[in-house]
Amino acid sequence: IDAGDNALAAPETTDLDGEGMLALYGELAQVVEKRVGSKSGAFDWVRRAYEIAPSRPEIRDELLRLGRETESWEALADLLEARVVKLGADAKDERVLILRTIGQIALDRTHKPALARQSFEALLEVAPDDLVAVGALEKLYIDADQQEPLAKLLHRRGALEQGTAEKIAALLRAAQIDQLRLGRAEQAIETL
Q1: Were 158 and a residue from 116, 146, 169, 171 both cysteine, which residue would form a disulfide, CB within 3.0 to 4.6 Å?
Q2: Which ranges of the chain would DSSP assign to H, the alpha helix?
C-alpha cells in the first residue's frame, strides 16, 4: 500500500466472516483505486480477497486486470502458481486459464523460459489440443535448440491443425528434424 493509503489499512482483528472480509477488501480496493488513485494499492487489496476466495472468477478477473495495469507480473505469477497447485481435477477450465496466463507472463513479461515451458507443458497435459500452448512451446524449443521435444511437438501440431497447408508444413518440419537433426530416417519416412 502506498504511503497515502495508510488510513485504509485493514483492521488487525475483526468480527467479519469470509464474505464480510471479501466485501471489505473489495470496497477498499475500489476506494484506493478510484479516490486515492493507486492501482498498486488496489492490487494489494484484491490480492487479499483472492487469497480468501481464489475460485471466484470476478475476483480472479479483477486481480488479472490490476496485475496487468500495474505490471505486477512476478506477484501475479506467484499467486496463480499457488492457486494452480491447489486445484482439483474437476477445475479443468480454471486450470487451463491459469496455466496459459502463467505461461504467457513467464514468456512475454518476466522472461523465464523454464517456467513458461513448465506451464505450457502442464497445459498440454490438461488440454492436449491447445494450439496456444503448442505455438509457445514450439518457440521455446526452437530458442533452446531442443530438437527431440520440438519434433514430437510438430507431430502433435500436424495432428491438430485443421488446414491442409498447416498440417503438411508441421509434418514436413517434423520429418526434417527427425532425419537431419536426430538421424531418424525411418521416423521421417513414417511421418511423410
Answers
A1: 171
A2: 18-31, 39-52, 57-69, 73-86, 92-104, 113-126, 131-143, 147-160, 164-176, 185-191
Distance CA 153, CA 174 (A): 8
Asked whether the beta carbons of 148 and 136 are under 8 A apart, the reply is: no
pLDDT (tens digit per residue) in 129-155: 999 999 999 999 999 988 888 888 888
pLDDT given at position 182: 58
- For 52-66, write each residue's pLDDT tens digit: 999 899 999 999 999
Residue 45 CB partners (closer than 8 Å, separation 6+): 25, 26, 28, 29, 32
Cell numbers found for residue 8: 485504509
